[in-house]
Structure formats: structure tokens, C-alpha cells
Amino acid sequence: MTDRIILDSLEVECVIGIFDWERENEQKVLIDLTLDCDMARPAKTDDIKDAVDYKAISKEIIALLEPSRFYLIEKMAEEVAKLCLSHKGVERVTVKISKPEAIRGSKNVSVEITRPKGGTLIFLGVGGNLDPERNLQDGMKLIRERFTVLAVSPTYKSPAWGVKESQPDYLNLAVKALTDKDLFATRAEIRWIEELLGRKRTLDKFSPRTIDIDLLMYGDLVSEGEGGTLPHPQILTQQFVYTPMMDIAHDVIVPGEGRALCDILPAYDDISLELEKVNL
């Protein structure tokens, strides 16, 4: 593939480095990207929907790095590469991260990596209402160990929905990740995390729970098997799924719909349900 998008010297201020003073002060890093992609279709249609949205990619990189606290620019480069490859149309990425004046007598130190696309893009809905702050934090640690996490939405609090008796409020968020596992193994990993955190399944599907992890999308798969429907129908029927998904996947084409999530009008089961953004 010879078609490339090149972005030079995207500047971000963040915490980066191993020394004490570096952990206390932000430094400037510069990001150079080369995105390998097929430009034949957008060149023909002249339509942004057919092109790789490099503005969105640059904004996501800034959002990823500004609050980050990496020790090594090698790790930072790897995370930026994962983010770029999560975008439709990007088949390979070269990431160069420069740390100006990191070494006395040198104007710049940089690392450069090249990564091909690999794995299946998935989205997870994560929630719970039994000690949810601790369980969601523990759940995210386990999710990061089992999957390559690309983005995590803000956390939202909402009343328990569909219940017969009063329950604690729920906390919910959405996760964008890559997996090298097939659908069966991906669901098995999710179930393992739930059981590890004390999830008890009962006949009452609205019972309180320590954690609930739903597979919302698995690549472009459309399925109605025993393991559940894909894409998950609650993406468009529940505010606590739709809203965090819009935070991290507004431009993702919903399998079976042929349209981006932001172009689909949700049909909420309870339009009166209100969400509150909270810090986890």
C-alpha cells in the first residue's frame, strides 16, 4: 500500500519520564504519524465519510496523552499506535514521538515504531451497583490485562432500571478495545472477569450485581446466538449504554445498520431515565 496520511509535529504537554522532577512537571512531546490507508474511494467520492478522519485521530491522541503519566516514550508510542489502528481504514501506522531537550547537549530524543493492524475491534459496556466504585476500578484493571484497551468513556450514575424493589444506583461506562480472541473466547474472558469479581447470576435478570460486562460489538459481526445478540440492542435502547458509547464511538458504523452511531436516533425504553456524569 502506497497511500499515506502524514501528520507532523503534533504538540502535547504531559507528564513523561522516570525522574522525580519529571513526575511533577509536564513536558512537551512531539508526535509524527504516518497512516497507511487506501485513498482510492475518498479520492473518487470526495466524501469525508469514506476517508480516514485524521482530525479526529489527532484530537483522540491529545485526549489520551494530556492526562497520561507514562514513564517511557516507548510505551507512549505503543499506545498511540493502538489508537490509530482502531480507526477504520488505517492498515498500518508509523509513530514517532520526540522528547525535545531530554538529554543535555542533544536537541531531541525520539523513538519510532511501525505497527500493522491486527485484532478485532470490540466495545464493552461495564456497570454495577454493589460497591460499584471499587468493582468498576478492579474490573477495568482486569479488562486491561485481557484486552488492548484503546479508550474508556466517562462514568455515569443512573437509577436502577426495570427493578421491582428499590436498589442502589448503577455506575456505567463503555470501553473500546482490541482482542486477538475469537467470539467464544472473548465472551469466556468476560465471564471470567465477572466471576472473579463476585458476579452472582440468578433468575432475576434485574438483580443487583457487583459487575456486569456486556459485549456490545464484536467487529462488524451481526449475530443472534445463545451468547447474546450482536450488536447489543441496549446500545440504542438504554441511556446508560448509548451515552458512554457516544463518548468513544460516535463515528463507528453500527453493524447491521450501515450508519454511524451518531446518525442513529435511539429509542429509549424509559425516556425519563436521567444520567449523572461522575468521577470514578
Automatic annotation (TrEMBL):
Its EC number is 2.7.6.3, 4.1.2.25. Coiled coil: none annotated. GO terms for molecular function: 2-amino-4-hydroxy-6-hydroxymethyldihydropteridine diphosphokinase activity; ATP binding; dihydroneopterin aldolase activity; isomerase activity; kinase activity. The keyword Transferase applies. It catalyses: 7,8-dihydroneopterin = 6-hydroxymethyl-7,8-dihydropterin + glycolaldehyde. InterPro entries: Dihydroneopterin_aldolase, FolB_dom, GTP-CH-I_C/QueF, Hppk, Hppk_sf. Pathway: Cofactor biosynthesis; tetrahydrofolate biosynthesis; 2-amino-4-hydroxy-6-hydroxymethyl-7,8-dihydropteridine diphosphate from 7,8-dihydroneopterin triphosphate: step 3/4; Cofactor biosynthesis; tetrahydrofolate biosynthesis; 2-amino-4-hydroxy-6-hydroxymethyl-7,8-dihydropteridine diphosphate from 7,8-dihydroneopterin triphosphate: step 4/4. In the N-terminal section; belongs to the DHNA family. This is 7,8-dihydroneopterin aldolase. It comes from hydrothermal vent metagenome.
